[in-house]
Amino acid sequence: MSDEHGPQGRATMQHVATLAGVSLKTVSRVVNGEPGVSDELAARVRDAVQRLGYRHNLAASNLRRGRRTASIGVLVQDLGNDYCAELLRAVEARARTRGVVVISASLDEEPEREHELVTGLVERRIDGLILMPATDDQGYLMPEVHAGLAVVVVDRAPRGIALDAVVSDNRAGAANAVRHLSSFGHRRIGFLGDDPVIPTASERLVGYREALADLGLPEDAGLVRTAVRSEAEVGAAVREMLALPDPPTALFTARNVLTVGAVRALRDLTVRHAVALVGFDDFPTADLLDPGVTCVKQAVLTEGELAIDLLLSRMDGHQGPVRSEVVPTTLVPRGSGEIRPG
Amino acid sequence: MSDEHGPQGRATMQHVATLAGVSLKTVSRVVNGEPGVSDELAARVRDAVQRLGYRHNLAASNLRRGRRTASIGVLVQDLGNDYCAELLRAVEARARTRGVVVISASLDEEPEREHELVTGLVERRIDGLILMPATDDQGYLMPEVHAGLAVVVVDRAPRGIALDAVVSDNRAGAANAVRHLSSFGHRRIGFLGDDPVIPTASERLVGYREALADLGLPEDAGLVRTAVRSEAEVGAAVREMLALPDPPTALFTARNVLTVGAVRALRDLTVRHAVALVGFDDFPTADLLDPGVTCVKQAVLTEGELAIDLLLSRMDGHQGPVRSEVVPTTLVPRGSGEIRPG
DNA sequence: TTGTAAGCGTTATCAC
DNA sequence: GTGATAACGCTTACAA
What we know:
Two copies of one chain form a homodimer.
Chain A: H1 13-20, H2 24-31, H3 39-52, H4 58-65, E1 71-76, H5 82-96, E2 101-106, H6 111-123, E3 128-131, H7 142-146, E4 150-154, E5 164-168, H8 170-183, E6 189-192, H9 199-215, E7 224-225, H10 231-242, E8 250-253, H11 256-268, E9 276-280, E10 294-297, H12 300-315, E11 324-327, E12 330-332
Parallel strand pairs in A: 1-2, 1-3, 3-4, 4-5, 5-11, 6-7, 6-8, 8-9, 9-10
Antiparallel strand pairs in A: 10-12
Helix pairs in contact in A: 1-2, 1-3, 2-3, 5-12, 8-9, 10-11
Chain A binds a DNA duplex through residues 10, 12-14, 22-26, 28-29, 31-32, 36-38, 41, 56-66.
């Protein structure tokens, strides 16, 4: 509460020891709650700690102990995205119970950032890493894993290296969306997705195609738009697709941002009750829109919990072979996906 | 890429030096890009670094250098909330340009967690802290600030200590919402807000009351509901309020989660086009709902940038008096706030 | 250009 | 019980 020391710099154990009139080691014992210190000295030490505003220096402590830093990194594409934010929350909750702090950052699909951030985190000696990769090869992590870094990849399957992973069943989820639309009579279903270099985007496209093939529906190249990145771009894509001579009667959007953009476009075109829509990845107000937006919901909470559990087990020394969890999705019908062709 | 060392433990500079056949100091020079090392030795060192998978240990480096850790903490209420997530993104973007990593966590309005997390971060010797307080007194930060920790408080004014702060103009924003509704003929405007121990909640309530007084409208205790915490609770509150003998013709919800809950309730009651609604704090699909939801929008990006700029300036040694930024809000009319009384 | 010594704040070892 | 001393991995002086 007081200020025995200057406005700059922290008191060290030595300062505390001097003020308390004891040795450095005694302070260390008190601070670490080790037994074998008389009540009187312990009290003197605690008093000095208070007066100096002493705070234990974990960096120095870990350096000497050779212990872990009790910190993990979580690298996702965009902390502003609901999927990523929820994932982080799930990880954080579980990490806190272990006294582990979470260093998080967004990659924005930039491989460069992934490299930079991983380097920064490794130099800070994080104990574990949960990664939603922006690179198309995570082989560069090999030395880190070898040196004892625990790594779990989420949302996208790891490439170029065998790592524990947690992913949604993207193919099955996408295929299910198409089958759902087909069951309501649609035969011309448009696909709007991200750049297929992003594994989830390509998996969802594969699922779309598989379902079309299964259903005996022809694939029309004009109804497939990939590399649609933003809400603005998806609006233009929807407009173009619906202006085709033989337009689709239903749309499947492969990411939540694209779904919202498509809803906006359909509303502007006043066809929101005429063109069916199913989106991959849920979003908070999907049920409040008119019509409600039918979504393929990912079990984000489950994925986050699986990821942190896998990570913690590795951090605890688990040495077994790589584990891969594929988490099923659920289709939530809300109206937009149950519109019949006009 | 190779594994000269075991699956546990990291190579140190000494290992590199031995393998390269040079002194420890030479390795240090190469790793830190200091001049004055012959090309040949530098190459030998780099080769050894590669082979051993050596990574610079920032903790040890900082310990000796007495330098900063190039890390900051960001403690918000809920990383899943759009306001918090956007704030974090803004902070993160700016921090990255300075090589500063961000350790983030959610407090969920629990003072205990704030204390725990701050302690953990201080023990890790973060250079700065951006805090959305869950405590009603941040005086406990005094010794940390004194010891050189840079702190900026966001969203809620600091209490019990003078700190740099960035807050929305909650009173003016709330008052503006009420005036807006009044200008459309409403005289009975319901208030739904959080627990008034939360400063933003009480400020918004004050703004509501001030506007009523200014407009010469009577305040009806039955139209004011505080301590509404969740989406579920707000639904019940809306139902009760609208069941009153003399129900409100308009609602003002003081937080985005409550706004969404109110929209859901109004829809379920099939009065969404009959009862006006203005919400404090914008949310992503507010324009897509039917009617669009009129919101008092906070300049989150601006707030985040101001916060990190204030923090960085303190971290750079700025010693001036405490600065307090009050960021204006904007009312965005979208339909729900322009409904006239029935 | 390269290497040696000491020390950053802490803890482990082993004496007193 | 308590305290000297060395050491963790690194960088700053200062020599060579």
